Amino acid sequence: MPAEGCWWGGAVVVLGGRESRSHGEGRQRKEQRVVVMSEDAPVNIGAAEDAVLPHLAVRRIQDKLHCWAVSVPDRRFDDLYNLVCDPAVLAVAWERVAGNKGARTPGVDRATVSYIESQVGVGAFLHEVRELLKSRTFSPVPVRQVMIPKAGGKLRALGIPTVTDRVVQAALKLVLEPIFEADFQPVSYGFRPNRRAQDAIAEIHHYATNSYQWVLEADIEACFDNIDHTALMNRLRRRIGDKRVLGLVKSFLKAGVMTAHGTVEGKITGTPQGGILSPLLANIALSVLDDYFMEQWQTLMFNEQHRQKRRYHGVANFRLVRYADDFVVLVTGTKEDAQALRDVVADVLAPIGLRLSAEKTRVVHIDDGFDFLGFNIRRMRKSGSHKHYTYTRPSAKAIATIKARVRAMTYRNTLHHDPGYLLDYLGMVLRGWANYFRYGVSKRIFTAIDSYTWERITAWLRKKHRIGWPELRRRYCIPGTWRLIYDGQRFRGAATVTVTRYRYRGYRIPTPWTPQTP
Q1: pLDDT tens across 243-254, in order?
Q2: How far apart are CA 11 and CA 79, in angstroms?
Q3: Quick one: residue 353, left, alpha or beta (phi over 0 = left, psi -120 to 50 = alpha)?
Q4: Is the model more confident about 268 or about 47?
Q5: SS3 sequence, 435-448?
Q6: Per-residue CA distances from 389 to 105, 370, 380 (Å)
Q7: What is the pLDDT of residues 118-168, one digit of tens each?
Q8: Less Cβ crowding at N or C end of the chain, within 10 Å?
């Protein structure tokens, strides 16, 4: 992409900073010159584009927003509210809400996606939402609070918005995400397009293999509940100048929570965990941490020569890797260097109302290992040699969790299930779990999980039919083996998933809207 602007292919026209614009661009002006296609200049979808599929229209909008945000890092976007109200954006937002697992879960109004489809009609519903937004009469309602169990016996509050609020949040995300993705640093991986947990693990593995042996393993205490609204809105204003969009985001932050007792509690901090927009808002708030560490990296440790020089003089190098509110700081140096960074992190997080969890934040050596995103990462001596390597494998907690699911499905109270259903369901669960952990040293663990599952299933079959081992082998095993089969379908567990190496993609991972060079 050229330095002076965005190329869309074909002939281009240069729009001046004070040139009059057609309706839909409104206040999308700036002092610098921006190169765009003349036919692409209006961002809104007009009558001439009614035949264009909503997904293509929305992708076109997002491409432009992202390109403008990349080409002018200090640009503030003024006319975004019309995009949130756009029929194509609302249609795609509805599809994302309807396709989500929570589509069957109602908010405080008890309306579900299926109810709206059957009783109201999607077209009429989206038309009503659009009219509410255009007339500025839309107002979010409190989210319905549901308490879900956490590890250790604690409970986590989950906020479930109404379907209407989910659609508007999804529309906001479609418009805001391409803008802020231009600013987000490459060290964060959670809830971002084209990025996944395995990328974060691969980056940790990369640096741990290259002498980053001390690890500040950090966790933010109740991150989604304690984000300061003022600090978050200030970070939003750095890019968003449209007061209507800012007001809409703020109204979601202040909507409150309806508890199980029917009382409404106001919110002065935090973003309700469970909303479609919440992960993006959390990333915007936590980008203050990413910005600080990337600034240090780019000014003091920007190439290998400078990092080697710092190490020669006894100065530590450090690298942040963050996934949502969980993050680690990898350090070359001493334990004291890593412990000193704990205070630095606390100072960076304090202005946005966050603090580190005293229980979960600690400094560990890579040889002792630590858990991150379900993986255990540890440097060990390779069997049969004197060389040490960094290994990633499923953590003990992850193994205990999958065993608990297997155990729950093979209790006595499940004996009414059909054996074929049990084998299919457990196989699906185990393969799904294994697909997440396949990029690691996991083969032996997969085999051990399958062995445990085999023991649970065979015990379940014997209790269900009150049969002995010879009869079980005759009815439920492949002839001459102890491998389970039912109605011609073999049981396929975790060990059937191929273990492979996840290739480190570097930290310059393109976004979905990054222009592809010919």
Answers
A1: 999 999 999 999
A2: 26
A3: left
A4: 268
A5: HHHCCCCCHHHHHH
A6: 46, 15, 6
A7: 999 999 999 999 999 999 999 999 999 888 887 667 788 888 999 999 999
A8: C
What are the C-alpha distances in Å from 165 to residues 81, 93, 137, 161, 469? 16, 11, 13, 6, 56
Q: Per residue, what are the HEC states of 210-270?
A: CCCCEEEEEEECCHHHHCEHHHHHHHHHCCECCHHHHHHHHHHHCCCEECCCCCEECCCEC
CA distances from 163 to 36, 82, 144, 513 (A): 37, 21, 12, 28
Cα–Cα distance measured from residue 424 to residue 492, given in angstroms and rounded to the nearest whole number = 8
Place of tokens 């204003």: 237
Burial of 103 (0-12, 13-18, 19+ CB in 10 A): middle
Q: Among 70, 148, 60, which Cα is nearest to 102's?
A: 148
- For tokens 């294994």, the residue is 434
CB 328 within 8 A of CB 286: no
> Tokens 């016996």, residue?
153
CA distance 285 to 322: 13
Would you state the structure tokens that stand for residue 353, as one six-digit string? 């109302």
Structure tokens at 261: 């007792």
Neighbours of 74 (CB within 10 A): 8
Distance CA 182, CA 512 (A): 11
> Quick one: which of 95, 323, 297 has its CA closest to 192?
323
Q: Residue 208 class from Cβ within 10 Å (0-12 exposed, 13-18 middle, 19+ buried)?
A: buried
Alpha-carbon distance of 278 to 282, in angstroms, equals: 6
At 199, which helix (H) or strand (E)? Answer: helix 197-209
Distance CA 345, CA 363 (A): 13
Q: Which two tokens stand for residue 403?
A: 């065993």
Residue 280 CA: distances (Å) to CA of 155, 170, 191, 496 = 23, 11, 7, 36
The single residue listed with the structure tokens 């205990």 is 400
